[in-house]
Specification:
InterPro entries: Citrate_lyase_asu, NagB/RpiA_transferase-like. Helix content is 26%, strand content 20%. It is an alpha/beta fold and 512 residues long. The strands form five sheets. A nine-stranded mixed β-sheet has the order 11-10-7-3-4-5-6-24-25, with helices on both faces. Strands 15-14-13-12-16-19-21-22-23 form a nine-stranded mixed β-sheet. It has a three-stranded mixed β-sheet with strand order 18-17-20.
């Protein structure tokens, strides 16, 4: 069951409620974009971020965008927003792809009235805390990776100026992410912004003579180029645990998840796969690597945020190609730099439900995490049981909707709270798109997938009901029911959009 949402939300507008994962897949249009021609002999190079802001004609109430390929090492958002604040602008909306602890100064810009709106696919750290504390005057909008791309292309998010952190750029605006001291690999997220924003500014710490080579974002979509000393620290792009789990319960979950994929009938030539960077996912990948090698299976592709583990599988001949929207570690950056089978993809190509086919639709199996899973298989990766915003969907909902087998792997409980609950505190990904939940105590299969349940039983795997998992989770040593969060009434702090633009849930302020 999905929670009901208001018909109108102050600071957000009219609400189209979520009606089902595939209920809103009719024909879609793309907004027209105004381009500003450059005359022969006219340059694009500007001396400072302030000069670029002035050249773009930024105004109060404008929307500016940023991307997160440098992740917790990014310094472009901080530098641009500091200049915007110093110039006296107010009521700016920040349409970031994701926000990390490094973006803490943005919380002060919220409190000072410089920023009045935020949208992102993932928010964690001081900015998330500021939103949860009610500092933002309008509800934050939480999207999926594919849903954000859809919204930008459709004009639901209209970007006045896109600021692109460019590891390499030439003076005419050609950009790549594989050269320079801040190389981050693919540039899948700003590709969409560069195509659709009214103005585009490349900010680079590695200016090269024209033409840059290779080119990921081309001069035809870039208005201005600003050289700076540093755009950030690429050493801090590393995501997740990046080490195979050594915990007994984690190893048990990983072994069971790999067995589910094997029993599903999907693990054969042409197999396609996506996983996260956490320890359990890496352990599953290790097991699949062994199985594929022993059986001579060659997969078609692995996708998503690419890790060194997937690079190793590509180089071992276990996949023909990688589709990469962002690099999760420096081994992936190096692979994209040198291996033509390691391909970039835009966020739209990755997960846009209104595109003419997204890569997620070609996935056989997807490994997903969870903060909570409920009896309807709804998954929460957004809101903690202490009311803190944990992050957000990212590609969670996109891949769950697209993959033939969407697996959630999770322990039954944390040290103090159950993770299999009667009802999640926030619906990030709807249960209809989740095929099975794998825990150390067994596997719960969605009733919509009776075919999968029979396959797993025939393989001798421990299939149990989701209700049984919930009961076991509540009986774990030291576990108590989590305190109530996200009440039915109260000021709305954030709006959760499903990938099709409908509202799937909201986060409300707790009373008191």
């Amino acid at each position: 069951m999905i929670r009901s949402v208001p018909a109108f939300i102050e600071g957000y507008g009219p609400v189209e409620p979520f009606a089902g994962a595939f209920a809103r897949l009719g024909p879609a249009t793309r907004r027209s974009v105004t381009r500003h021609p450059v005359r022969p002999g006219q340059g694009k190079l500007l001396p400072s971020i302030r000069a670029a802001i002035e050249a773009c004609g930024l105004k109060d109430g404008a929307t500016v965008s940023f991307h997160h390929h440098l992740r917790n090492g990014d310094d472009v958002l901080r530098a641009v927003m500091a200049e915007i604040a110093a110039m006296g602008f107010r009521d700016i909306t920040v349409a970031a792809t994701s926000l990390f602890p490094v973006h803490a100064p943005l919380a002060d810009h919220i409190r000072n009235g410089v920023v009045s709106g935020i949208s992102a696919t993932y928010i964690r750290g001081p900015v998330a805390d500021a939103i949860a504390a009610g500092a933002l005057p309008t509800p934050a909008v939480l999207l999926t990776h594919g849903g954000r791309a859809r919204a930008v292309e459709a004009g639901d998010i209209r970007i006045d100026v896109a600021f692109v952190a460019a590891p390499t750029a030439d003076p005419y605006g050609n950009i790549n992410g594989v050269q320079g001291k801040s190389a981050c690999g693919t540039l899948g997220y700003p590709m969409v912004d560069a195509r659709c924003a009214d103005r585009v500014v490349a900010i680079t710490d590695h200016l090269v003579p024209y033409p840059a080579c290779p080119i990921d974002i081309s001069q035809e979509d870039v208005d201005f180029v600003v050289p700076v000393d540093s755009i950030g620290d690429p050493q801090r792009i590393v995501s997740g645990i990046t080490r195979v789990t050594t915990k007994p319960e984690g190893k048990a979950i990983a072994a069971m998840a790999a067995a589910v994929i094997d029993a599903s009938g999907l693990l054969k030539d042409g197999f396609s796969f996506q996983m996260g960077a956490g320890g359990v996912s890496l352990a599953v990948a290790d097991t699949l690597k062994t199985i594929m090698s022993e059986r001579g299976i060659v997969g078609s592709f692995a996708a998503g945020g690419i890790t060194g583990t997937l690079v190793e599988m590509l180089e071992a001949g276990l996949f023909r190609t990688l589709f990469d929207v962002q690099c999760f570690d420096l081994k992936a950056v190096d692979s994209y730099r040198r291996n033509p089978a390691h391909q970039s993809m835009s966020a739209s190509q990755y997960g846009n439900p209104h595109a003419c086919g997204a890569v997620v639709n070609q996935l056989d199996a997807m490994m997903l995490g969870a903060a909570e899973v409920d009896l309807d298989f709804n998954v929460n990766v957004t809101l903690g049981n202490n009311g803190v915003i944990l992050g957000g969907s990212g590609g969670h909902s996109d891949t769950a909707a697209g993959a033939k087998l969407a697996l959630v792997t999770t322990a039954l409980a944390t040290n103090t709270h159950p993770k299999i609950v009667e009802r999640v505190s926030f619906v990030t990904t709807p249960g209809e798109t989740i095929d099975a939940v794998v825990t150390e105590a067994g596997i719960a299969v969605n009733p919509l997938r009776e075919d999968l349940r029979e396959r797993l039983r025939d393989a001798g795997l421990p299939v149990v009901s989701i209700e049984e998992l919930q009961h076991k989770a509540s009986c774990c040593d030291g576990v108590t029911p989590p305190p109530p969060v996200n009440p039915a009434e109260g000021r709305i702090l954030a709006v959760g959009q499903y990938r099709d633009g409908t509202v799937i849930d909201v986060i409300r302020a707790n009373p008191g």
